[in-house]
Structures are given as C-alpha cells and as structure tokens.
C-alpha cells in the first residue's frame, strides 16, 4: 500500500510538472510578444546625405523612389522635408507599395504646417509588413493641395547612384537617390516555430517522466529517481541548514534582516554619487541600472564565498555522520538566495521612485534569478572542493572576485567595452544574467530569444562542471578535512 502511494505521488508530480511547463511556455510566448517574433535589423536602408531639393510638391507633382527591401518587415520610414523657411498649408500623401502587385504597406497624410524645415519625419507602419524581403518597394510622395509659394519639397542626393534604387520626379527618371531611411525587422524562426519546439520538448519531458515511473515500478536505477529520492530523504535537513545559515548571518545584529535592504541601497548610493557626479556617466536611469548590477553581483560574491567554506566549515559533522556532501554547498547558496529575494524589494522601490515603467516583462525576472542561483551552485561545488585540497583558495578567490566585479558592466555601460574584446566579456556568465534583468526592468520588454539561450548555457555549463568536479573529489574529503 505504501509503494502504491509512492508511485501515485510520483505520477502526480510528473503530471503537475508537465502542466506547469506548458502553462509557463504559453505565458512566456505572450509575455515576450514581438521580441520572440521579430528582431530589429541592422541592415536597414540609410540614405541621409542631402544635396539637392526635388522642387515644390505642387498639385499634380509627385516623387517616387524604388528600392529593394533587405528586411522581412518595414517598421518605419524617415523622409527629409524642406519648407523653404516658411509656413505652408495643405497636406502631403506618403505611400509605400509593393511594386509588383501595388499592395499598400503604408499610407500617411501629413499636415505640412507641422513640418520642420530640413528635418526628418518618421512614418511608422501601423502593422508589420511580413515577407517583403527581396521585393521591390515603391515609395510615393504627392500633394493635392500644394501651390506655388505654398508647398514643401524633399531632398535627394544627386551624386549617389544605386542600381537597385530608381528615383522618379514628376514621371521622369532622375539621377540620384532620395534622402530617406528605412528601419525593419527580421522574422525569427524561433518565434515562427515556437509552439512546435515547445511541443517537441514537452513530449521528451513526458517520455522521461514515463521512464521514471517505469523505473520506479521495476526497481531499475535512474539518476532522476536518485535525485528525487535524495531530496525527499534529506529535504528537511536542507531546510534546517538553510535556516541555520540565514539566522546565523544576522545573529546579534541590531538591524538584522534590514541589512539585506540597506546593503545594496547604500552601495548604490555611494557608487551613484561617484559615477554620476565625478565621472559624469550618461546612462539613462543610472540608479536602477546600477542597483540591478549590484544586487546580482553581491549575491554571486556572497553565495560563492559562503559556498567555498561549505565542506571545510562542516568538517565535524561530515566526519561523524553520513550526509550527502553536496547538501552543504547547496544550502549555502540557497540561504544567500533568500537575501537576493529580499534585495528585490528595494529594487522595486527604486523602480517606482525613478518612474521606470513596470510592464508585464517583469514576470520574466525569476528566470534570470534561477539561472544565477544554478550558476552559483556550480561555482560553489568547484570552490568548496578546491578549498578542501588547497586552503589558500579563499584568499585567491577574494582577488578573483574583485577582478570579476570590474570585468562585469555593473557601474559602467557596455558601450565602452572594446568591440574586439566583446567575445571575451560575453564568456562572463554574470554579463548575461545582469543584461537580461536590465532589459526586462529598464526597457520593459523581453530580451531576444538568444539571450535566454545564453543564460541557460551560462548557468548549466558551470553547474555540470561543478557536479563532475565535486563528485570526483568528495570521496577524499574525509581524509583532507
């Protein structure tokens, strides 16, 4: 009867896990929105050097510019108008069409009285125009109200020629290219096949869950079952260790848990004063930008410093009673994770104080937090193993963590990093976790799909490496501690 209940519990747990996975996957798709469907392209057309006006856009006059779209969508077009330094009246019509079938992609009526002399006007597409890449598009500008002395004009460059672009002024081909820019997006295959990918992964997870249930029924060994049984057997001990570490940290402290609020805030205030007044940083919303970096790096520094001493600090317990040794580094990181979660409160307060708009993307923050925790567990496995065999590890790690802080964009912008060294900086896992969190908090949107992949790789690779190192080293811990 007991076995039957245990089997049912595993089946229920697997069913709940699959259901949670599907709910999270569907929610992620709708929270991410267009970030999973499109990527802003860096290959948009830019022709901005103005040399010659096309002449007054009077009634019956028109200007057309053909070009080949190099993005899947056209999000907006910018045109440079001149008003002859006078106040004109009337309207100008701007259309964007597919040259082959005359499909209208954009249609705007501009009030010429609102145009500023020699300035660009940005015309946004009402909805993305899919699948225009490689097609010839025609930009048409005309006026039904312009009259001599009461009309605007466009600029073009008569010194530039492009075989893929044709300029037509009042029906006649003209040498040169209209002064205009386009911005577009590329359709992401990940977004296009998102649900197919999710279903495929869901099927694999379902098959694995069925395999676990079968292994439990037949008595076969399985890594997954061993992990579940270990957490079931030692879950209470893990909770007690986490609780002990958290309480010990603030023992006999007057302010106690308030230090989890004050520490990141005080650090942020000092660095904010230094970098915003002395070094004159121009990062938008610098206070929030800085606080995000401080919170994540402080957690990393605290978790790894505590994890480093996890085995050596519990030597008396390890040598007397059999306890899975991995419990100790995990408990250190999880106790630090409590401080990380508490530190999110002052972050949210700072977001509200600085009037940063909170969007639904904030719901993605747990993803970067979980990835950071997994990464820190992996690092703690490595450091705690090294500490057993080489006691100078703690002093060496203090130096490494300091260098790590300066190698992470915490108080300086990414833009100052040398482009040729960016691949090296991107090997830093904290770079991806902090960048992901800043994107959803400051920009209010989901990062691009590859940012999720980078975060997963940056957390799983150190974790797996840490497990391998710890597993090989743990059998000799008793002899060394």
Structure description:
The protein has 3 domains: 1-37 and 188-220; 46-187, PHR domain (Jelly Rolls, Sandwich); 235-480, no CATH class. The strands form 2 sheets. Strands 1, 2, 3, 5, 8, 10, 13 and 14 form an 8-stranded antiparallel beta sheet that branches. A 6-stranded antiparallel beta sheet has the order 7-6-9-4-11-12, with no helix packed on it. The longest helix is centred in the first third of the chain and has 31 residues, at 2-32. It is built from 14 helices and 14 strands. It has helices at 2-32, 189-192, 194-218, 223-249, 259-278, 286-308, 315-318, 327-353, 365-389, 393-406, 422-425, 429-443, 449-473, 477-480, and strands spanning 38-40, 46-47, 52-53, 62-68, 73-82, 91-98, 104-111, 119-124, 136-142, 153-157, 166-169, 172-174, 177-178, 180-187. α5 crosses α6 (286-308), α6 (286-308) packs parallel to α9 (365-389) and α6 (286-308) runs antiparallel to α10. The protein starts with a helix and ends with a helix. The model is unreliable at 1-7 (pLDDT under 50).
